[in-house]
Amino acid sequence: MYQKILTLGLIYLAAVAEVSLAPNLFLGRLVPDIVLVLVIIWSSRKSFESFWIWAIIAGLVLDAVSLERIGLNAALFLLISFGINFLSKRFFVGQRSRNFFWVAVLILAGTVISYTLGIGLNAAVGEMSLEAFSFRGVIFKAVNNLIILTIIYWPVVSSKNIFPIEESRLVVK
Amino acid sequence: MSQKLLSPKLIRLIVALAVCLALVFLNPKNFFDPVRGVFVNIAYPFQKTFYFISERTGNVFSLLAAISNLKNENERLIQENGSLSSRVAELAGEKKENEDLRKQLQLLPKKDFQLEAATVIAQDSEGYGSWIMADKGRSSGIETGMPVIVYDGILIGRISEVFENSAKISLLTDSSSSINATDLATGARGILTGEYSLGITLDMVEQTEVLNEGDDIVTSGLGGTIPKGFLIGKVAEVRSSVDKLFQQALVIPKVKYTDLSTVFVVKGTL
After folding, report:
1. Pick from A47, A124, B195, B232: most CB atoms within 10 A?
2. Average pLDDT of each block of 10 consecutive residues along chain B (270 residues)?
3. Could you tell me the pLDDT band of residue A170, with boundaries at 50, 70 and 90?
4. Is A128 in contact with B35 (Cβ distance < 8 A)?
5. What was the pLDDT predicted at A74?
6. What's the pLDDT score for residue A172?
7. In B, which residues are within 8 Å of A20 by CB distance?
C-alpha cells in the first residue's frame, strides 16, 4: 500500500513538473514528457500484466493535470507499455532491463509514437490539425526526453525497493 | 490459432484501450470537471513553486548564454542609444497624436478596466501553445469567458475553465478561439480564429474590404463579450479563402504567448 501511494505521488509530481517546471527550462519550449519517460523505464522492467494498470493511472493523472481530454494519455501509455513489453520479450531478451541504452532506444521510439498518435487523436476529436506535426517538434521532444532520462534513470532504477519496479524474471521451465 | 491471437494479455489491452478511447471520444471535457478540479487544486501550490523556480532558473540560463555576446551587444547598444535619443524627441509629438487617435477610435486604455493581475503557473505541455494557466480562480471572482490581456491592452485569450484558485486561459491560437476583430487602419471586419495552435487567422473578411500587410488588428467589440479596442497583432499575409468568397489574413500576435509571466483578467469596465 505504501509503495502504491508513493508511486502515485511520484507520478503526480512528475505530471505537475511537466506542465509547470519544464516549460521554462527546455529547448524550443517543447516540454519533455516526464511521465512518459517514467512509464517507459517502468515498462522496460516489469511485465505488461503487472504494469498495465499503472500505465493507465499515469495517463489519467497526466490528463487531469495537463487539462487534456481524459483518456488520451492513458490510451497512449497503455499502447506504448504493451509495445515495449512485446519488443522486450521477442527481440531483446538478453539485454532487457539494466541497460540504459536499450531504454534510450525505447524512449526515442516511445516519443515518436506518443507525439504522432497524440496529434492524430487530437485531430480526430477536432482539437488540432494534422498540420501541427513537425519533424523538428519530434526531434526536440526526443532530445528533451533523453535529457530527462539521463537525469532520472539511475535514481528511479536504484530505488526499486521503494517503487514497485522490481525486474520481472525470465523463468525457464 | 485464435486462442494464441486472443491471449488474455491482448484482450486486456483491447478492452482497456477501448475504454480509454471511449472516454476520449464520447465524454465531453466538462463531465470530468469536478475530478479534474480536485487534481488541479491539489497541484496548485506545487505548480506555483515549480513555475517560479523554473522561471528564475530559465532566466539564469538566458543570462549565461547572453554573457558570450556582451561585447557585440554593447557596441550595438551604443549605436542604438544615439538613434534612440533623436527618436525620443519625435515620440513626444507622436504621443499627443496617439492619444487623439485613441479617442477617435474609441480604443480603451488599460486603466479603464477592472483588472485582476495573475501569474502564469503552467502551460500547454504538448508544446502546441494553446493554453496557459493563471494562479487566480473562482475565489478571485474569475469567470469563464472573461478576456485576458497583457501590458497596455494586448489581448491574448479568454478564460475557458475556472478552478478554485486557478484558471485555464485558452489562447487566441487555440482552435476553439473565435473573436470578432477589425483592421485598425481600414476598418475591415472579420472573425479571428485560432489555427489549431499554428497561428491566428482573420477570416470572413468581405472581398470589398481592404486588408494591408502590416496593419494592426484589434477587437471590434461585436458580440459584446470582449470590449472594443484590444490590440491583437499585425497582418503578415493576405490571401483569399478557398472558395474565393472572402479574404483571409494571417495575423502575427503582438506578444509571444509562451514567454508570458503576468497577465490581467478583465473582470469588467470601471
Report:
1. B232
2. 66 88 76 80 84 75 67 75 67 62 55 84 76 90 91 87 90 86 88 78 88 88 83 88 84 83 84
3. very low
4. no
5. 92
6. 46
7. 43, 46-48, 50-51, 54, 121-122
Section A101-111 average pLDDT: 90
Q: What pairs with residue B116 in β-bridges?
A: B265
Would residue B161 be called left, alpha or beta, if left means φ above 0 and alpha means ψ between -120 and 50 degrees? beta
CA atoms within 13 A on the CB side of A120: 9
Locus of grid cell 495537463? A66
Going along A107-162, which residue ranges are E strands?
Answer: none
Question: In this complex, do A20 and B47 lie within 8 Å of one another by their Cβ atoms?
Answer: yes
Contact B147, B189 (CB under 8 A): no
Q: Which of residues 72-131 of B touch A (CB under 8 A)?
A: 121-129, 131
Query: Could you read off the pLDDT of A18-75 as tens digits, one per residue?
Result: 888 887 777 555 788 999 999 999 888 888 888 889 999 999 999 888 888 888 899 9
pLDDT score for B97: 60
Q: Which of these, A45, A17, A53, A33, lies nearest to A112 by C-alpha position?
A: A33
Cell numbers for A42, please give them.
517502468
Q: Does the distance separating the beta carbons of A71 and B27 come in below 8 Å?
A: yes
The C-alpha cell that represents A74 in the structure block: 492513458
**Candidates A12, A19, A137; nearest CB to B125:** A19
Q: What pTM, to 2 d.p., does this model score?
A: 0.77
Q: Which three cell numbers stand for residue B239?
A: 490571401
Q: Which of A18, A24, A46 to mutate to test the interface with B (most CBs of B within 10 A)?
A: A24
Contact B117/B262 with Cβ under 8 angstroms?
yes
C-alpha dihedral, B134 to B226 to B125 to A117, nearest 10°: 150
CA atoms of A151 and A153, how far apart (whole Å)? 6
The residue extents of the domains of chain A are 2-158
